[in-house]
Amino acid sequence: MTLNTFSKPYSTRNDLERAVAHHTWLAEHAKSLQLPPLVAVHATRLELGFVDGRHAVVADVPAVAAALGQAHADVWASDLHRALLTHAHPLSGSHELADFASPRIAALRTRCEAGLINARQMAAVQPLLAPHPATPAAFYKDTNPRNVLITSGGPVMVDLDDLTLAPFGYDLAKLLVTLAMTDGPLPPETYPVALSCYNLPLTDAGLPPVSIDEFLGYAELHHLLTLPYLGKGGYRHPWSTVRPTPEDLK
Length: 250
Hints:
Distance between the termini: 51 Å
Number of strands: 10
Order of helices and strands: EHEEEHEEHHEEEEHHHH
Number of helices: 8
Strand order of the largest sheet: 1-3-2
Helix content: 40-55%
Largest sheet: 3 strands, antiparallel
Strand content: 5-15%
Structural class: alpha+beta
Shape: globular
Oligomer: single chain
Protein backbone atom coordinates (compact mmCIF):
# COMPACT_ATOMS: atom_id res chain seq x y z
CA MET A 1 0.00 0.00 0.00
CA THR A 2 1.36 3.44 -0.92
CA LEU A 3 1.39 5.98 1.90
CA ASN A 4 -0.52 9.15 1.07
CA THR A 5 1.76 12.15 1.48
CA PHE A 6 1.81 15.91 1.31
CA SER A 7 4.71 18.21 0.48
CA LYS A 8 5.81 21.19 2.54
CA PRO A 9 8.05 23.67 0.68
CA TYR A 10 10.83 25.74 2.25
CA SER A 11 12.37 28.94 1.00
CA THR A 12 15.90 28.03 2.09
CA ARG A 13 17.83 24.82 2.55
CA ASN A 14 18.69 25.84 6.11
CA ASP A 15 15.00 26.16 7.01
CA LEU A 16 14.34 22.72 5.58
CA GLU A 17 17.26 21.13 7.43
CA ARG A 18 16.21 22.79 10.68
CA ALA A 19 12.70 21.33 10.33
CA VAL A 20 14.22 17.89 9.74
CA ALA A 21 16.39 18.27 12.84
CA HIS A 22 13.32 19.22 14.90
CA HIS A 23 11.33 16.25 13.61
CA THR A 24 14.21 13.86 14.27
CA TRP A 25 14.76 15.20 17.78
CA LEU A 26 11.09 14.97 18.76
CA ALA A 27 10.74 11.50 17.27
CA GLU A 28 13.69 10.37 19.39
CA HIS A 29 12.91 12.08 22.69
CA ALA A 30 9.10 12.55 22.69
CA LYS A 31 8.08 9.04 21.73
CA SER A 32 4.53 9.52 23.02
CA LEU A 33 3.97 12.51 20.73
CA GLN A 34 2.23 11.68 17.46
CA LEU A 35 3.87 13.34 14.45
CA PRO A 36 3.34 13.02 10.70
CA PRO A 37 5.95 10.53 9.46
CA LEU A 38 8.83 12.09 7.55
CA VAL A 39 8.78 10.19 4.25
CA ALA A 40 11.42 11.95 2.13
CA VAL A 41 13.70 14.97 2.12
CA HIS A 42 14.00 16.79 -1.20
CA ALA A 43 16.04 19.82 -2.21
CA THR A 44 13.39 22.41 -1.33
CA ARG A 45 10.56 20.45 0.28
CA LEU A 46 9.74 17.76 2.79
CA GLU A 47 7.40 14.91 2.02
CA LEU A 48 5.39 13.87 5.07
CA GLY A 49 2.71 11.31 5.67
CA PHE A 50 -0.79 12.67 5.18
CA VAL A 51 -2.77 12.97 8.43
CA ASP A 52 -6.53 12.51 8.15
CA GLY A 53 -7.80 14.77 10.91
CA ARG A 54 -9.43 18.06 11.82
CA HIS A 55 -8.14 21.08 13.69
CA ALA A 56 -8.48 21.04 17.46
CA VAL A 57 -11.46 22.74 19.09
CA VAL A 58 -12.31 23.55 22.70
CA ALA A 59 -13.73 20.08 23.36
CA ASP A 60 -10.33 18.61 22.50
CA VAL A 61 -8.44 20.62 25.13
CA PRO A 62 -8.17 17.81 27.73
CA ALA A 63 -6.71 15.34 25.23
CA VAL A 64 -4.32 17.88 23.69
CA ALA A 65 -3.20 19.14 27.12
CA ALA A 66 -2.52 15.59 28.30
CA ALA A 67 -0.55 14.76 25.15
CA LEU A 68 1.47 17.95 25.44
CA GLY A 69 2.20 17.39 29.12
CA GLN A 70 3.33 13.82 28.47
CA ALA A 71 5.58 14.94 25.61
CA HIS A 72 7.15 17.69 27.71
CA ALA A 73 7.77 15.29 30.58
CA ASP A 74 9.26 12.69 28.22
CA VAL A 75 11.61 15.16 26.55
CA TRP A 76 12.74 16.58 29.88
CA ALA A 77 13.59 13.08 31.15
CA SER A 78 15.29 12.06 27.90
CA ASP A 79 17.23 15.21 27.03
CA LEU A 80 16.15 18.59 28.38
CA HIS A 81 17.03 17.89 32.01
CA ARG A 82 20.46 19.04 30.83
CA ALA A 83 19.14 22.24 29.24
CA LEU A 84 19.00 25.81 30.53
CA LEU A 85 16.24 28.12 29.35
CA THR A 86 18.83 30.88 29.06
CA HIS A 87 21.04 29.03 26.57
CA ALA A 88 20.44 27.45 23.16
CA HIS A 89 20.27 23.65 23.29
CA PRO A 90 22.25 21.70 20.65
CA LEU A 91 20.56 19.25 18.32
CA SER A 92 22.13 16.91 15.80
CA GLY A 93 24.40 18.50 13.23
CA SER A 94 24.78 22.25 13.50
CA HIS A 95 21.21 23.01 14.57
CA GLU A 96 19.93 23.99 18.00
CA LEU A 97 16.84 24.97 19.91
CA ALA A 98 16.90 28.70 20.60
CA ASP A 99 16.84 29.81 24.21
CA PHE A 100 13.53 31.02 25.60
CA ALA A 101 14.13 34.73 26.08
CA SER A 102 16.18 35.98 23.10
CA PRO A 103 13.66 35.50 20.25
CA ARG A 104 10.80 36.78 22.40
CA ILE A 105 12.62 39.89 23.56
CA ALA A 106 13.45 40.66 19.92
CA ALA A 107 9.81 40.15 18.90
CA LEU A 108 8.53 42.33 21.75
CA ARG A 109 10.91 45.13 20.79
CA THR A 110 9.59 45.00 17.24
CA ARG A 111 6.03 45.31 18.51
CA CYS A 112 7.05 48.16 20.81
CA GLU A 113 8.68 50.01 17.91
CA ALA A 114 5.47 49.52 15.91
CA GLY A 115 3.43 51.08 18.71
CA LEU A 116 1.53 47.89 19.50
CA ILE A 117 2.74 47.62 23.09
CA ASN A 118 4.06 50.11 25.63
CA ALA A 119 6.83 50.22 28.20
CA ARG A 120 4.47 49.24 31.03
CA GLN A 121 3.42 46.07 29.21
CA MET A 122 7.05 45.24 28.46
CA ALA A 123 7.96 45.67 32.12
CA ALA A 124 5.08 43.43 33.23
CA VAL A 125 6.37 40.42 31.31
CA GLN A 126 10.07 41.08 31.89
CA PRO A 127 10.30 38.66 34.87
CA LEU A 128 9.13 35.84 32.59
CA LEU A 129 12.01 36.57 30.23
CA ALA A 130 14.63 36.21 32.96
CA PRO A 131 13.92 32.67 34.20
CA HIS A 132 15.76 31.27 37.20
CA PRO A 133 18.60 28.98 36.08
CA ALA A 134 17.01 26.05 37.90
CA THR A 135 13.68 26.36 36.05
CA PRO A 136 13.04 23.06 34.22
CA ALA A 137 13.10 23.34 30.44
CA ALA A 138 10.40 22.10 28.08
CA PHE A 139 9.95 23.00 24.42
CA TYR A 140 7.61 25.26 22.48
CA LYS A 141 6.23 24.17 19.12
CA ASP A 142 3.38 26.67 18.69
CA THR A 143 0.53 24.45 19.81
CA ASN A 144 -2.23 26.59 18.41
CA PRO A 145 -5.34 24.64 17.36
CA ARG A 146 -4.43 24.88 13.68
CA ASN A 147 -1.21 22.99 14.39
CA VAL A 148 -3.04 20.09 16.06
CA LEU A 149 -4.93 17.53 14.00
CA ILE A 150 -7.45 15.41 15.87
CA THR A 151 -7.59 11.86 14.55
CA SER A 152 -9.20 8.61 15.61
CA GLY A 153 -5.88 7.74 17.27
CA GLY A 154 -5.56 10.99 19.19
CA PRO A 155 -3.92 14.40 18.63
CA VAL A 156 -1.20 14.66 15.97
CA MET A 157 1.15 17.65 16.17
CA VAL A 158 2.10 19.34 12.90
CA ASP A 159 4.34 22.27 11.94
CA LEU A 160 7.67 21.73 13.67
CA ASP A 161 9.51 24.60 12.01
CA ASP A 162 10.00 26.96 14.95
CA LEU A 163 10.84 24.95 18.04
CA THR A 164 12.48 26.75 20.96
CA LEU A 165 13.09 26.06 24.60
CA ALA A 166 10.30 27.22 26.91
CA PRO A 167 9.14 26.76 30.49
CA PHE A 168 6.62 24.07 31.24
CA GLY A 169 3.10 25.34 30.56
CA TYR A 170 4.09 27.98 28.03
CA ASP A 171 2.91 25.99 25.00
CA LEU A 172 -0.30 25.02 26.79
CA ALA A 173 -0.99 28.72 27.31
CA LYS A 174 -0.57 29.24 23.55
CA LEU A 175 -3.27 26.64 22.89
CA LEU A 176 -5.82 28.25 25.20
CA VAL A 177 -5.03 31.86 24.29
CA THR A 178 -5.39 31.03 20.59
CA LEU A 179 -8.65 29.14 21.11
CA ALA A 180 -10.12 32.06 23.06
CA MET A 181 -8.92 34.64 20.53
CA THR A 182 -10.35 32.47 17.73
CA ASP A 183 -13.68 31.34 19.18
CA GLY A 184 -14.42 33.80 21.97
CA PRO A 185 -14.52 33.29 25.76
CA LEU A 186 -13.90 29.68 26.72
CA PRO A 187 -16.17 27.72 29.06
CA PRO A 188 -15.07 28.47 32.65
CA GLU A 189 -13.91 24.93 33.35
CA THR A 190 -11.54 24.88 30.38
CA TYR A 191 -8.56 26.41 32.18
CA PRO A 192 -8.47 24.30 35.37
CA VAL A 193 -9.25 21.13 33.41
CA ALA A 194 -6.46 21.85 30.93
CA LEU A 195 -3.94 22.47 33.71
CA SER A 196 -5.00 19.31 35.53
CA CYS A 197 -4.59 17.17 32.40
CA TYR A 198 -1.26 18.81 31.56
CA ASN A 199 0.16 18.57 35.08
CA LEU A 200 -0.57 14.90 35.71
CA PRO A 201 2.30 13.57 33.53
CA LEU A 202 4.59 16.19 35.07
CA THR A 203 3.93 15.14 38.64
CA ASP A 204 4.24 11.46 37.63
CA ALA A 205 7.74 12.35 36.36
CA GLY A 206 8.67 14.17 39.56
CA LEU A 207 8.36 17.63 38.02
CA PRO A 208 6.58 20.57 39.69
CA PRO A 209 3.08 21.26 38.37
CA VAL A 210 2.36 24.49 36.53
CA SER A 211 0.36 26.87 38.69
CA ILE A 212 -2.51 28.99 37.49
CA ASP A 213 -0.44 32.12 38.16
CA GLU A 214 2.36 30.83 35.93
CA PHE A 215 -0.15 30.01 33.24
CA LEU A 216 -1.66 33.51 33.39
CA GLY A 217 1.77 35.08 33.04
CA TYR A 218 2.50 33.01 29.95
CA ALA A 219 -0.93 33.89 28.55
CA GLU A 220 -0.17 37.60 28.86
CA LEU A 221 3.15 37.13 27.07
CA HIS A 222 1.39 35.26 24.25
CA HIS A 223 -1.15 38.08 24.06
CA LEU A 224 1.59 40.65 23.44
CA LEU A 225 3.35 38.47 20.89
CA THR A 226 0.08 37.81 19.05
CA LEU A 227 -0.99 41.45 18.70
CA PRO A 228 0.25 41.83 15.07
CA TYR A 229 -1.99 38.93 14.01
CA LEU A 230 -5.25 40.20 15.48
CA GLY A 231 -7.79 40.14 12.67
CA LYS A 232 -5.71 37.67 10.67
CA GLY A 233 -5.36 33.89 10.58
CA GLY A 234 -8.41 33.29 12.75
CA TYR A 235 -7.48 35.68 15.57
CA ARG A 236 -10.80 37.52 15.81
CA HIS A 237 -11.18 38.38 19.51
CA PRO A 238 -8.78 40.66 21.41
CA TRP A 239 -7.39 38.96 24.51
CA SER A 240 -8.79 41.81 26.62
CA THR A 241 -12.31 40.65 25.71
CA VAL A 242 -11.74 36.91 26.33
CA ARG A 243 -9.20 36.88 29.19
CA PRO A 244 -10.44 34.48 31.92
CA THR A 245 -11.89 35.96 35.10
CA PRO A 246 -10.88 34.80 38.61
CA GLU A 247 -14.08 32.76 38.73
CA ASP A 248 -13.03 30.89 35.59
CA LEU A 249 -9.86 29.72 37.27
CA LYS A 250 -11.32 28.16 40.41
